[in-house]
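Predict structure. Input: Reverse transcriptase domain-containing protein, 426 residues.
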Amino acid sequence: MSAIHRVRHLLGPDSTEETRTFEEIQTFEKEIRKFEKEIRMFAEKHEANLKRLAKAVEDGNPRKIRGAVDTALKSHAGKVVCLVRSVEKGPGMTREWILEEAERLSAYEDPGEPVRAWAKPKSSGQGWRPMCKFGPARTALQTLAGDILAAMHGVEPTNYLSKGRGADIASDRINSLVEEGFTHFVLADIENCFRSVQHGSLKHRLGLPQKVITTCLLIGPEVEILPYTPTGTTLPDAFDGAVRQGVPQGSRCSNLVMSLLLGPELRAMTSGDRIIVHGDDIAIAAHDEEGAKALQTALDGILKHHPAGPFRLKRCEVANIFDGFDFLKYRHRRDPFTGAIKRRPAAVCYYRYERRVIATVQTRSVANAVKDIGAYRRNWMGAFPRWEWNPLSKQLLANRMEELVRQEAPAKWARLLRGRRPGGWK
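Output follows.
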């Protein structure tokens, strides 16, 4: 359905185009409905191929599985659907272009598109991670591979980066586990998680042909990398090699691949409904401190000896819900008197907030900075729907923002701030 919905967006007129005549509108609607009907037929064929693959996996017939995988990879219908779901709207976008580009796609041959890459600083302020942006052909092949992997392996229950989940749902699960009687949590963060994946392990773990894995899931040695360096920045040492290591961040299916690599090992350690995996962040619930420490030791050993690793832990600690702990974007704490579970933004989120305010003060004009900072604070608070803030917490946040401005602002800000009442950044 996502492909069908995107047809009108991709082929529709640009907002800058001049008003069209009634006849042109009628012609446009006719062509759109025609292509939507084609895409629906392609989508049904693609879905049938995926169901056939899932049935072969259920039956456990290796020959049928290989045949169903090959059929889904080579299907023109599947490539059209995945391309429509991946390409961005642009000038000259036509039905003919989409069909021709899909015809040229092959999961067994590199599409020849360069990969744009840059070094993204980590939110902790320490280190960086290589990020990638892919062209429409590579993105379409990643989408196709992701559909096939999902049909083969299903949805990994521990993966909270899957569709319909996310950091807020993961936080809700933390709360429900506490309500079920789990008071301790093992909190872990894998160091350089995506880059640590060994390429040679993927064929056995994922069940795809090696050439398909190289083309769709990895960045091979022959792929051209276009480094992006904003003004005033330089690339870290060994940047090119880091981009090609493991599975690339920014790919449509890298999160899916990581969940399929980590999930089975983690579920072998304890019940899957106690485990929350969000990218490279892991939380595992335990009833008491002794059980949590046993899980902590087991987790470290499993990841060190993982067939696709080793994976090294940057952090692996035991936390108590009564003392409170940060996981993803929330801090969770149970009030020992009322028993209520309270959530607020995690420390790293406050750190990002402060860095953004400081950068705005230093780089924007007075009038624009006042406007931008106030809007940013409102949007920032809105990014935490599980945070039940009150007027006091809102006032404290505004006071902290004004304090940062006073500390970081140049002399031209002093006169402006002297006349502004505390908490006046609305």
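The longest strand covers residues 312-320.
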